[in-house]
Structure formats: structure tokens, C-alpha cells
């Protein structure tokens, strides 16, 4: 199912046929450096973690990003619920979403794809999901991602567990 189609890219819901591709991406050294995995995932772990999401059994909505018909990245979004909203310091009545993403093909880094996919999903969350705040938690060492998110209107709020920035984007 297509969520977003722009001139530059397509964001579609992830399918079971994407497990192997995502496994390869999660084992890419450029992704492993910053994606929060305790060990390189194999296809079985990917199916266990992402299968319920693909089948819509969890809040997390997994998506694949395509450029000119070629899958190049992964992006996911999810509504954050009351208890966690309050823990993060937001009002309970705010519509807060979380977002995570990666570009799985090293040769596609530095081409503006990250900025385009993040901006496209921001617009979708605001318009279709009625989100008022989006938060992300990139590694404090992931300067490339942080620059991308700042270009998309995210601001650094605070450091979490000495490892991650809590970044927010208000609509």
C-alpha cells in the first residue's frame, strides 16, 4: 500500500517480501554503527521483530522508501501513548508520534534522500494522522542524521541516557 508518492520518491508499507532486503540493510556497516541493534540481525530476527508490524498487529507502521522504483531505505512511524508522552515532557492531549529511518544502501547516502523521506513523512503524519509533535532519538554521534533532521525542522531537546538526542518537530 502506497502512503506517499512525490516526484522524487515513494513511501509504501513494508511487505513480507521485504524481510531479506531489510536484513541486508540492517547489516550494512553504515547502518549498524547507529541503528540500535545489539548484534547484527539475521532474517529470522527480522521476521520476528517486523512480522507483527507488517501484519498490522503493532502500533509501529513499517515502510519502505523507493527512489525511481528502487528500494533504498526504511522508515517507520508510531503514535506515542499517554504514559510515555508525559515521561517525555509533553501534555497528555498532544498527538505525539515517533519516527525512525535509515538509508540501507551506502551509495545513496549524502544525496538528500533522507531529507526528502523525512519531510514527506512529516507532512503525512500532520495531514493524515493529525500529529502535532514528532520525536526522534538519533545517536549523539550520528552527525549526518542530526543535520538532516535539523534541515527538516527538528530541534534538539535533551540528551537521553548519555547516548541519544531527543529531537522534536512541532507542526
TrEMBL record:
Q: Which superkingdom heads the taxonomic lineage of this protein's source?
A: Bacteria
Against PROSITE patterns, the record matches this protein to: GNAT
Q: Which residues form a coiled coil?
A: none
Name the Pfam families on file: Acetyltransf_8
**Residue intervals of the N-acetyltransferase domain:** 9-171
User: What span is annotated as the signal peptide, if there is one?
Assistant: none
What keywords are annotated for this sequence in UniProt?
Answer: Antibiotic resistance, Transferase
Q: Name one GO molecular function term.
A: N-acyltransferase activity
Does the UniProt entry include the keyword Amino-acid biosynthesis? no
The UniProt entry, under InterPro entries, shows: Acyl_CoA_acyltransferase (IPR016181), GNAT_dom (IPR000182)
**Can you cite a GO biological process for this protein?**
response to antibiotic
**Which protein, by its recorded name, is this?**
GNAT family N-acetyltransferase
Organism whose genome encodes this protein: Radiobacillus deserti
Amino acid at each position: 500500500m502506497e502512503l506517499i508518492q512525490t516526484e522524487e520518491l515513494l513511501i509504501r508499507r513494508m511487505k513480507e517480501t521485504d524481510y531479506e532486503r531489510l536484513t541486508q540493510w540492517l547489516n550494512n556497516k553504515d547502518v549498524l554503527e547507529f541503528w540500535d541493534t545489539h548484534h547484527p540481525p539475521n532474517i529470522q530476527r527480522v521476521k520476528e521483530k517486523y512480522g507483527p508490524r507488517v501484519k498490522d498487529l503493532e502500533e509501529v507502521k513499517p515502510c519502505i522508501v523507493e527512489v525511481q522504483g528502487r528500494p533504498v531505505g526504511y522508515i517507520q512511524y508510531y503514535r506515542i501513548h499517554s504514559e510515555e508522552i508525559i515521561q517525555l515532557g509533553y501534555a497528555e492531549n498532544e498527538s505525539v508520534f515517533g519516527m525512525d529511518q535509515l538509508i540501507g544502501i551506502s551509495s545513496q547516502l549524502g544525496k538528500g534522500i533522507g531529507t526528502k523521506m523525512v519531510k514527506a513523512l512529516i507532512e503525512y503524519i500532520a495531514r493524515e494522522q493529525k500529529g502535532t509533535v514528532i520525536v526522534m532519538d538519533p545517536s549523539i554521534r550520528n552527525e549526518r542524521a542530526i543535520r538532516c533532521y535539523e534541515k527538516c525542522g527538528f530541534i534538539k531537546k535533551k540528551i537521553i541516557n548519555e547516548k541519544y538526542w531527543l529531537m522534536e518537530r512541532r507542526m
